[in-house]
Amino acid sequence: MTQEFTGAEIVIRALKEQGVEVIFGYPGGAVLPIYDALFQDDQIRHVLVRHEQGAVHAAEGYARSTGKPGVVLVTSGPGATNAVTGITDALMDSIPIIVLTGQVPTHLIGSDAFQECDTVGITRPCTKHNYLVKRAEDLARVMHEAFYVATTGRPGPVVIDIPKDVQFKKAAYTGKANVSHRTYRPQTKGDLKRIKEAVELMASARKPVFYTGGGVINAGPRASKLLRELVRLTGFPITSTLMGLGAYPASDRQWLGMLGMHGTYEANLAMHRCDVMINIGARFDDRVTGRLDAFSPSSKKIHVDIDPSSINKTVRADIAVIGDAAEVLADMIAVWKSGRKEAEPQALAQWWKQIDTWRARKSLSYKKSDTVIKPQFAIERLYTLTRGRKTFVSTEVGQHQMWAAQHFHFEEPNRWMTSGGLGTMGYGLPAAVGIQMAHPDALVIDIAGEASVQMTMQEMSTAVQYDLPIKIFILNNQYMGMVRQWQQLLHGGRYSHSYSEALPDFVRLAEAYGCVGLRASTPGELDAKIEEMISIKRPVLFDCVVDPNENCLPMIPSGKAHDEMILPDMVDAPTVSEEGKVLV
Amino acid sequence: MSQQPGSAYFLVDARAREIRTTLAVIVDNEPGVLARVVGLFSGRGYNIESLTVAETDHIGHTSRITIVTSGTVEIIEQIKAQIGRLIPVHRVIDLSLDKPGIEREMALVKVAGSGDKRVEALRVSEAFRARVIDTTHSSFVFEITGAPEKIDAFVDLMKPLGLVEVSRTGVVAISRGAEAM
Ligand SMILES: Cc1ncc(C[n+]2csc(CCOP(=O)(O)OP(=O)(O)O)c2C)c(N)n1
Ligand SMILES: [Mg+2]
Questions:
Q1: Residues A117-134: pLDDT tens digits?
Q2: Sign of the C-alpha dihedral computed for residues A245, A246, A251 and A253 taken in this order
């Protein structure tokens, strides 16, 4: 007779077979059998968070910084609903995570039992796929399928809802090797004919630009290597989305900086004026394109994406290649080399000259001050003083996030974790917990806003419990700065409920949590305080008191095109049309 | 420029022409699969004009969903790509491409009345090749099969003749010719 295991044991076995080392979770009635099996296992480490949303963001941080899937374990009802924000975040940013939720016993499903909720119903639109497992015999297969679905193709979150009786029932275990999915076979190899056409078009370009995104990061370190090779081979300029930062080194001469709403002048104008755009693993998001009917009007567009639904969703591609970024990049390089292609050298030189004039506008510049800390200055110093270390950065959402993207420069992929698609305030602190779990010796910094950080502040307690020396660097401008900026630009300076009233004393708060609190209020003391923060081998809350009125520029206002940016040196107050006001 | 779905930005274009399309979707017959498809349509703001579903392969446990939808060419392309992205979906076939497929719908139509109207209802039903499947002294239930427009026409004719109730299956469709899709 084949050996049988309880459902809970099957879960643990499957996790181990999938190579899972860490899970993030929170117990409750409907997952007690799994927690019991975990108690008796000495291989998998469990991180007890303080709120289930934190567990999911931690798993996201873990996944993004390692390239491995993140795993979450929560109870039924409120455990599952608390996880929904994180799950949606992972869907929007294509992060592979597996979320195990407990459920009431099968015979009680549908009876409004205690802590029952329709988890698969609630999470259907915010997962890549989800399962309700009604029989212990199916559990091992579903577990392995879930890892396969979450990590292949365009990655994303998968929820497995496991009723409590199924966790107790005994069944045989099926190994990973014996499970293959019935339907899901994402295409990874690009169509060579299309790739040849794409390379042909690239070689004929006079004003080309690479526009890359999170897809390159998701395709693994090899994709970043290949991207570097192709970009250098062609000599073309390159820009990237918020999600794609680090795939191409920011110190390189061909790098134009980030594009989009708060992107650089040179990146956005290169996009606007180019004649050939090579999009690799980006999705023409509205933060990037601005006004669609004025988006890069005279370019031919090559779009490489693993998700067929990304093609022609908002912007028509002239040449579409469906496939994994690494696979397609490798083929592009091979084709480029075999034809010994060389783009029009003179036209390209002319294009670079043009780009250099845009660069000369120094769109990321800002007014320096001796008395108050400018938020951009704080990020610059943080970047300079941590350079050369193995540093990982997460962020919350708001102005500080954009300043971090603009002024903290990344040389490697998987070092930058931010909530791009959903824009979830409260992402950064728990994400830092997950990153530090995966990289115990690295310097992990959450660049935070004083409003965002209060959404998941309780995870400081998690950091203390597991000795995770994360650094929470708060750009404290006493405002929901991004909201205040929009109210200034769009609503006549009526700052409705965007002032951060009744703030805690972050230094004393840190001490209350049992970690270290630091504060810098003047430019003069900033460096020493940052150095001190780095040297402390414990979690730190750093209250960096910055100029409350600084705006995040450059900016493409809503409803405007790439060539209608507001630059820092423009004196006039920016105007936004009536049409633009209703946009987000 | 045509209307772009999924953009936060204004794109005014009154000219974008909507087309009607019939899609056949082959899915694994597992719990929740219909909810995934329907939820996708409501979540992304697509239209469903009609939807039918039944298991068509009892051994392979696959079902065939026939969806009639409408939208601009771009939106139809997006709908197909989005459905194709659902994990339990095997294939999405557009039956309106190339040579249009055959569409049929069945309706049960209850008509009550007496005298001339009753005679006229029966006469019309013969002209439409509808079958009488239930009769009382004061009512008929007709079964009629055909393209949706034919059923519309039949129902319209029955209105003044004592139409009481209509139940329709929604469209099922298949491609013409010898090949399987
Ligand atoms: C959960 C959530 N609620 C609301 C918002 C809308 N929002 C975007 S930025 C922002 C202000 C963030 O303030 P803070 O964290 O202080 O960052 P700052 O912009 O001041 O740097 C708000 C409220 C959001 N992104 N996420
Ligand atoms: Mg703030």
A1: 999 999 999 999 999 999
A2: negative
